[in-house]
Design goal:
The complex is a heterodimer of chains A (478) and B (633). By secondary structure, chain A is mostly helical. Helix content of chain A is 75%, strand content 1%. Chain A contains 21 helices and 2 strands. The longest helix of chain A has 32 residues, at 311-342. The mean pLDDT of chain A is 90. Chain B has a two-stranded antiparallel ribbon. In chain B, helix 15 (332-359) packs antiparallel against helix 17 (397-412). Chain B is globular, with a radius of gyration of 31 Å. The N and C termini of chain B lie far apart (99 Å). The model of chain B has no long low-confidence stretch (mean pLDDT 89). The chains are: A mainly alpha (478), B mainly alpha (633).
Chain lengths: 478, 633
């Protein structure tokens, strides 16, 4: 429970601490969460398949168990959340918003909601945290976003809210066959083919919108580009991971009977998105929009990998999720660094920054390369495994998915070169401040560490995935 | 020390050099940076030599497991055999010389430390590619080489005039390589799904045991070959290599002549057991004809290029095509032999051109040069040796290595022999044209450039001299009679011992050699008479017509690709954004939202707040229900 308490406490306390210490206070909070989750990670027995239970309610009439806990996958997601939150706090440190009470408080609330999502072992609790997470992100985007943000945000809110309602309907439907909302009870339910179809479909709608998968993505480019940096980072690095995580933990295990029907369409949507968004990204002029489409392209591959639902592909998807979070945060930070100093992020108006800001150029270049999955980066491993998995499913799918290698190189390098290379169009460009530098450095360090020894993640999540697959298989056989 | 300890050291040295220079290089003086980067290379070369002399049987070195999943695992493991150690010698040996050369060449560059960092890292990636014991390691190095080459081609990215162009050339190289990489990746997956492993020796062993279908073998080998066309610049993926000349000249020498472009050839030789299966017969033929076409096309284009580096770049493409013809005929040792001699003289020629460009204050157009032999005598002499070697002048290295491929071709098919001999003739013609235009006649540049003309310092001329010596004597490695190199490679490289050696009888050997010599000398005399005696000069681009115009415009390959691929994809990108994204999907979503709103509007009208209307609706409802039940019964 301390896991949830730390960010919740900081969310409240930021409202009372004086303005001038807020940002330091926030960093302390981010660090505290991270350190605490590290101790949990160290204490976690990697060979166990048991869920470490943190909290549980007694029996009650509505069947709300309130169960919270984590296994290998859960602690992995917790680590992701806490690392990314700290990076977001760091990158905002020298921006005006970091001294804003509301902003900092909402960031911590967001962290708490996300952690809640990842450690919920109860369907209703999962839904509650899932919905709570919408509030802080909406407030952050609404209060600190760009001037013409209202239409985009309304669309985003309604769109994701509709999806969530579908998920709630699914949860209630499946609960009507079970004793409680606890995940093991829900998993034990055996559904008829038709019910399973609708339950699966409800979850899928919620997740497809949040990820977002083609064609449910129309809210995403606008919301990403209108939200402030922290909002875009939260959306791309963490919120969409809730949906990918949800596919692994909730959607398939709860209604495995419908996996066969949904598998092929989801793979097709995912892979289509890879190519479609990749091609669109090639000609985007707004860097933020460009990376927004790139994000759709990357997560399409992850979603397609998850839905294959075997151990290798779920592992690969988890590695790639971590990678995508880091790369997305890094790239959006880079865009923000440019926008703050140049007053624009349109590619045609940029150029030649590299010569003026070598530190920034190095970090941005390294990130761009990580984004195109070069060796020694986590993306190299993740992409290799995912494309391999999709290739084993069908060579045509594998080949189409593989085009991300080519398109990714085209749009990422284009964005980098048009903004950074060539003759400088300006006379000065302030290089990275210390907090930005550290944020970039942490991102790159983790990317390289995972790229060199991905086995540590495989060992961490492996037994839990085995367990997940085992229960899901026995259930689907019964 | 044992081989098991020495080989990781060979890899570690350039990595360390790269890391140290990358982190600290900015603060260190240039001399330290350059010396460190060069020293690690020379030490690595020394260790490689040591391993070379120790090595008898192939050695496998396990480092660690990168990934262990249920269905397969990927290992960081090395395989040291005669093929990999030979390639290591080339990469570290030529690499050392080029590092040394760069210390002089790059001495005025701001990004000095970055340059050496990239060079060291490039060598590291290339060594992983060569020394890995499985296809995953090869792919790892393969991608690493690609990225280092990207960084080095676009090295002068902030240049006032050409910065963005350099970057675009780098991107072109990277993207084209990536297309090939996709082929290689699919090939890897095919191998993995067929054999369940990516280790070379296990694949070779399981090949007889599993006997996969011919179609599968064709699929695997063609995918590997597609990968090879990217890195080794074959049709259709060759247009990046000439553009890659945007990089500093030592990069062209190292990457685009001596090492990176040989990766595709190495891949085929390494996988020889796959290419020798009956199913791969078709792939071999494809490889042969693609190689032949590339060789001729590139040689044709090189005839009318006026940029000294472009001529050499196309000659590289042409020579690589030559080597692929050899691979297509199953002449693996001949291929590696030509790779070796080509590495010598092409590195020599590129470094020589670097020395020329250095002397010419960065001018690369040969029409601005002329009569340089007086001003830069050492460069002139070594460049002459390089020209003679690549043209196949009797008794120089290129003569023997080309001859071996030609002998295979004659044995294979007279047409291929004829076409190859023609390509060799073209090579001799354009190389002598280049040599005479640059070094003979009168100086044609500006007085300003003339006043700066100077011979390069010792650290630049020394590598030229070493490479010149190697270019002269390199042919002795596999001289007819001893065939030391063939025996050496066939000794412990998986699969190569099973490939039948071609035995050419003495009379046809002499016929071959005499023909080749005559062709070269004819080309020499022809070029001499037109460029020195008649003092012809390359005319400016707008005055040429006919075949020459085709050659000067590179057969319009870039323009054709632009129309066929680049423009359509850009169009699709814009159209999908405007039509599908903004017009269609957006309106559908908004339409759904609006229809909900409209439904609300409709229903709203019923809510009038007047009781009599509600009563009326209620009566209608009751009537409706009654009717429904009556009908149902």
């Amino acid at each position: 429970m301390i896991l949830l308490l730390i960010p919740s406490l900081f969310a409240l306390l930021t409202l009372v601490v004086p303005r001038n210490v807020i940002r330091v206070f926030a960093l302390v909070g981010g660090l505290a969460s991270l350190i605490y989750s590290c101790t949990l990670l160290c204490g976690f027995n990697q060979d166990t398949t048991q869920v470490v239970t943190l909290f549980q309610l007694g029996q009650n009439s509505i069947g709300f168990s309130g169960k919270m806990g984590y296994d290998g996958i859960g602690i992995f997601m917790v680590m992701l959340t806490n690392v990314i939150t700290l990076i977001i706090l760091l990158s905002n440190y020298n921006r005006e918003v970091s001294q804003n009470k509301l902003f900092t408080s909402m960031l911590f609330l967001m962290q708490a909601a996300l952690l809640g999502v990842f450690i919920s072992m109860d369907g209703l609790l999962f839904y509650i945290f899932w919905e709570i997470s919408l509030i802080p992100i909406f407030i952050i985007a609404l209060s600190f976003g760009e001037s013409d943000r209202k239409a985009a945000l309304t669309k985003f809110f309604i769109y994701t809210f509709v999806g969530s309602l579908a998920m709630l309907a699914s949860l209630i439907a499946i609960k009507s066959y079970a004793n409680s909302f606890a995940i093991e009870d829900l998993m034990a339910v055996e559904l008829s083919a038709k019910t399973a179809f609708w339950v699966f479909g409800g979850f899928f709608l919620a997740f497809a919108i949040k990820i977002p998968l083609f064609p449910f993505h129309t809210w995403q480019p606008n919301t990403y580009s209108k939200a402030p940096m922290a909002g875009t980072m939260l959306l791309s690095a963490l919120m969409l991971k809730m949906a990918l995580y949800g596919m692994i933990r909730w959607m398939v295990p709860l209604a495995p009977e419908a996996l066969n029907e949904f598998q092929f369409p989801i793979i097709v949507l995912g892979i289509f998105g890879v190519v479609y968004a990749g091609i669109i990204a090639i000609k985007q002029a707004d860097m933020k929009r460009l990376f927004a489409f790139a994000s759709i392209s990357h997560v399409g591959l992850i979603a397609a990998g998850i839905i294959l639902f075997d151990k290798d592909n779920i592992t690969a998807a988890l590695i790639q999720m971590f990678n995508h979070s880091l790369v997305a945060v890094g790239l959006f930070l880079a865009v923000d660094v440019i926008e703050r100093r140049m007053g624009t992020r349109t590619l045609g108006e940029l150029g030649g920054i590299a010569k003026l800001a070598p530190k920034f150029a190095f970090m941005f270049a390294a990130l761009s390369l990580a984004s195109v999955s070069v060796p020694f980066s986590s993306g190299f491993i993740g992409e290799f495994l995912l494309i391999k998995g999709l290739y084993s499913y069908s060579w045509v799918i594998g080949l189409i998915a593989g085009t991300t290698l080519v398109f990714g190189a085209v749009y990422t390098l284009r964005a980098y070169q048009l903004s950074m290379n060539g003759a400088p169009k300006i006379t000065s460009f302030e290089d990275l401040s210390w907090n930005e530098w550290i944020a970039f450095f942490i991102i790159m360090a983790i990317i390289v560490v995972i790229g060199v020894c991905p086995q540590m993640i495989i060992d961490l999540v492996g037994p839990s995935i085995d367990q997940l697959l085992e229960t899901y298989k026995t259930n689907s056989i019964i | 020390m044992k081989i098991e300890q020495l080989v990781p050291l060979i890899l570690l040295l350039p990595l360390l050099g790269g890391l140290i220079n990358g982190v600290l290089g900015k603060k260190l003086p240039k001399k330290v940076v350059g010396s460190l980067a060069t020293a690690v290379m020379f030490i690595a070369f020394g260790i490689a030599l040591n391993v070379f002399f120790q090595l008898h049987d192939s050695v496998r070195i396990d480092l660690f497991t990168i990934i262990r999943l249920d269905s397969f695992s990927l290992n960081a493991r090395f395989l040291v055999d005669d093929l990999s150690i030979w390639m290591t010698l080339i990469v570290t040996g030529i690499g050392s010389l080029i590092h040394l050369f760069s210390m002089g060449y790059m001495s005025h560059d701001e990004g000095y430390y970055k340059f050496f960092t990239y060079l060291n890292l490039f060598i590291f990636a290339m060594l992983i590619l060569i020394l890995g014991s499985n296809y995953f390691m090869l792919f790892f190095g393969w991608e690493g080489v690609g990225i280092c080459s990207y960084l080095l081609i676009g090295f002068h990215y902030s240049d006032e005039k050409k910065g963005l162009l350099n970057s675009i050339a780098a991107r072109k190289a990277f993207v084209m390589n990536r297309i090939g990489d996709l082929g290689l990746l699919i090939g890897l997956f095919l191998i993995l799904s067929t054999f369940g492993t990516l280790e070379y020796n296990e694949v070779a062993a399981k090949l007889t045991e599993l006997s996969p279908s011919n179609w599968m073998l064709f699929g695997i080998t063609i995918c590997l070959f597609i990968g090879a066309t990217g890195k080794s610049a074959q049709i259709p993926l060759f247009t990046w290599l000439p553009d890659a000349m945007a990089g500093p000249t030592p990069v062209s020498a190292l990457i685009h002549a001596a090492t990176m472009v040989t990766a595709g050839i190495f891949l085929v030789v390494r996988s020889n057991f796959l290419f020798e299966t009956p199913g791969a017969q078709l792939t071999q033929d494809i490889m042969l004809y693609i190689g032949l076409a590339t060789s001729l096309v590139a040689a044709f284009i090189a005839m009318r290029q006026n940029d000294i580096k472009k001529v050499l770049a196309y000659s590289t493409v042409s020579q690589l095509g030559f080597i692929f013809v050899a691979l297509g005929m199953g002449a693996y040792t001949a291929a590696i032999f030509h790779v070796t001699t080509h590495a010598f003289f092409k590195a020599l020629l590129f470094l020589g051109s670097g020395s020329v460009i250095h002397a010419m204050s960065d001018e690369q157009d040969i029409r601005q040069m002329g009569g340089l032999k007086k001003f830069i005598p050492i460069t002139h002499l070594t460049f002459l040796i390089g020209t003679l070697a690549i043209s196949g002048f009797p008794l120089l290295s290129g003569f023997f290595s080309k001859d071996e491929i030609l002998a295979h071709a004659l044995h294979h098919n007279a047409f291929i022999y004829g076409a190859l001999a023609f390509s060799a003739l073209l090579t001799a013609i354009y190389m002598f044209r280049l040599y005479f235009v640059v070094f003979h006649g009168e100086f044609r540049g500006s007085d300003h450039v003339k006043s700066h003309l100077h011979e390069s310092p010792l650290n630049m001329t020394f590598p030229l001299i070493v490479l010149a010596v190697l270019s002269v004597v390199g042919g002795a490695l596999n001289i007819p009679g001893s065939h030391w190199f063939s025996h050496f490679l066939n000794h412990n490289v998986t699969g190569l011992d099973k490939v039948a050696e071609l035995h050419v009888d003495n009379s046809s050997l002499i016929t071959l050699m005499v023909t080749a010599s005559v062709l070269t000398i004819v080309a020499l005399i022809g070029a001499y008479s037109s460029y020195v005696m008649k003092k012809q000069l390359p005319v400016s681009d707008d005055k040429i017509t006919g075949w020459a115009k085709l050659s000067a415009n590179k057969l319009y390959f870039d323009e054709i690709y632009d129309v066929l691929f680049v423009k359509p994809i850009e169009l699709i990108s814009k159209l999908s954004h405007q039509l599908i994204e903004v017009l269609f999907l957006n309106n559908v979503v908004l339409g759904v939202a609006k229809s909900i709103g409209r439904t609300g509007d409709l229903v709203k009208k019923i809510q009038t707040g007047r009781t009599e209307w509600y009563l009326l609706w209620m009566v209608f409802g009751i009537i409706g229900l009654v009717v429904y039940y009556l009908v149902k019964i």
